[in-house]
Write a structure and sequence with these properties.
InterPro entries: DUF3054
Protein name: DUF3054 domain-containing protein
Keywords: Membrane, Transmembrane, Transmembrane helix
Pfam families: DUF3054 (PF11255)
Oligomer: single chain
Number of strands: 0
Strand content: under 5%
Radius of gyration: 15 Å
Number of helices: 4
Shape: globular
Organism: Nocardia flavorosea
Order of helices and strands: HHHH
Length: 126
């Protein structure tokens, strides 16, 4: 049971928060939420998946003695956040979507708040 909490719980929380980020963005621009949500979300969800894989591979490379924990702020959360942002923006460019500097700044800030914030809160409560 504890293993699934370390894996499944954080993955679900991260995925929901990335989709929420996309919903908020679409809503703030008065765009139809459901109609274009997949187009908006796929680059960031893909970046999130890449971040999770990279984080786990980094854990394996470091050969830590404790089990992998997706709730860790560092390095797990930092790898996941940066990958979600960088891969997400690269895929937006590849898909012909906008990446204005103001959007990159907002995305970096909101994704940091979402993906790092809940991990920091958990850590502070421990």
């Amino acid at each position: 049971m504890l293993r699934s909490v370390r894996w499944l719980g954080p993955i679900v929380v991260d995925a929901l928060l990335v989709v929420l980020f996309c919903i908020i963005g679409r809503r703030s621009h008065d765009e139809a939420i459901l109609a274009g949500l997949l187009r908006t979300a796929w680059p960031f969800v893909t970046g999130l998946a890449v971040g999770w894989i990279a984080s786990y591979l980094l854990y394996r490379r470091r050969r830590e003695t404790e089990p992998f924990n997706g709730m860790r702020l560092r390095p797990t959360g930092l790898v996941i956040w940066s990958s979600t942002l960088v891969v997400g923006m690269a895929l937006r460019v590849a898909g012909g979507q906008g990446t204005a500097i103001s959007f990159v700044i907002v995305a970096a800030s909101v994704l940091a708040l979402f993906l790092l914030g809940w991990r920091a809160a958990i850590r502070a409560l421990d």
